[in-house]
Amino acid sequence: MAPTMAAINNATNPVSDFSDFVLTKGHGVKGLSETGIETLPNQYIQPLEERLCMTKIVPENAIPIIDLSDPNGTGVADAICNAAERWGFFQIVNHGVPLQVLENAKEATRRFFGLPAQEKNKYSKDNSPSNNVRYGTSFSPQAEKALEWKDYLSLFYVSHDEASALWPAACRDGLLEYMRKSEAVVKQLLKVLMEKLNVTEIDKSKEDLLMGSRRININYYPICPNPELTVGVGRHSDVSTLTILLQDDIGGLYVRDLQDNSWIHVPPVKGSIVINVGDALQIMSNGRYKSVEHRVVANGSKNRISVPIFVNPRPHDIIGPLPESLASGEQPIYKQVLYSDYVKHFFRKAHDGKGTVDYAKI
Ligand code: OGA
Ligand code: NI
């Protein structure tokens, strides 16, 4: 039975009750939200500078929406590369992933989070049979001073067989189908982005370096009693090569505008997929393509879900500026780093904006 709010806000021992309910028992913030909680627990109160001040939002600005119905059409490749250089983010429509596949992935996500806490908690850090399957809340509760208002399930893809054996049945098929059906458009985007860096052929070893491993996350941002005091996800850039993100129709994802530092909303567009450049591609392109800071606000009236696929180098890959992108004599601004070290560095700290990439700076 869910404890009452009196138990959670119990003045004598709020933290232990809170962490038992949210973290240990696996109710997460979804469980907290569903108790009807009326005030945000202190653990979620973010410092002022981390809250999104609506005056910093420039509503008329927007990231590009690129139509891929004729991917070889005039201007499409330029639009993709320009968006990756100028914004680090764009949306794609008519991308070849059937609408039903996108709907099924969202349905799979809702089904997983709709499970009782004790079912979801079978995949927590302490209980999961594999490190490749992890249910949790916030980003890195041990490293964070203030928690984020989000629950997640993170699935590192090894093989279809492993996924069949280990991923929760509630969401497995819908997510695997989405991963499989989106592979072609990911390859197409990388091909276009690589051509601008003078990489004319993506052979097997290049393909492994760019997209040799993949992780799919499902995120749940429940209704929040004081959304203005906290965040759904704090400022960060992704450590991926590319991230392809499916969001529902609620909205709340904001992207930093590189030109004036303001925040731009990424509006939900029916049937679209949001694409963003991650740190690995920023490093491999020697800074040409931008891995841009983004964040998610909490919502006071609606539950939101999202489904990012992080297309990554493999953990044992060494990443650095690609030789082709330096062929014209450009000086490298990043060194060669082991990708798993880079990712470890990301997870060791709380979300801190663009801080991660400094790890690879020369
Ligand atoms: C992420 C992320 C955005 C969203 O998971 O890295 O930025 O809209 N998610 O959920
Ligand atoms: Ni992100």
Question: Can you give a write-up of this model?
Answer:
The chain is built from 12 helices and 14 strands. The strands form 3 sheets. Strands 1-2-10-7-12-5-4-3 form an 8-stranded mixed beta sheet. Strand 1, helix 4 (76-86) and strand 2 form a beta-alpha-beta unit. Helix 5 (99-113) runs antiparallel to helix 8. The radius of gyration is 20 Å and the shape is globular. The longest helix is centred in the first third of the chain and has 15 residues, at 99-113. It has helices at residues 5-8, 14-24, 28-34, 76-86, 99-113, 117-120, 160-166, 172-181, 183-195, 204-211, 279-284, 339-348; strands spanning 65-67, 89-93, 133-137, 151-157, 213-221, 233-236, 242-247, 253-256, 263-265, 273-277, 294-296, 304-312, 318-319, 337-338. With 362 residues, the chain is of the alpha+beta class. Helices cover 29% and strands 19% of the residues. Residues 236, 238, 294 line the site of nickel (II) ion (NI).
Relative helix content: 25-40%
Shape summary: globular
In the sheet with the most strands, the strands line up as 1-2-10-7-12-5-4-3
Return the structural class. Answer: alpha+beta
Distance between the termini: 54 Å
The set of bound ligands, ions and cofactors reads:
N-oxalylglycine, nickel (II) ion
What's the number of extended β-strand segments?
Answer: 14
Radius of gyration (CA) equals: 20 Å
Organism: Ziziphus jujuba (Chinese jujube)
InterPro entries: DIOX_N (IPR026992), IPNS-like_FE2OG_OXY (IPR044861), IPNS-like_sf (IPR027443), Oxoglu/Fe-dep_dioxygenase_dom (IPR005123), Plant_2OG-oxidoreductases (IPR050295)
Family: Belongs to the iron/ascorbate-dependent oxidoreductase family.
Pfam families: 2OG-FeII_Oxy, DIOX_N
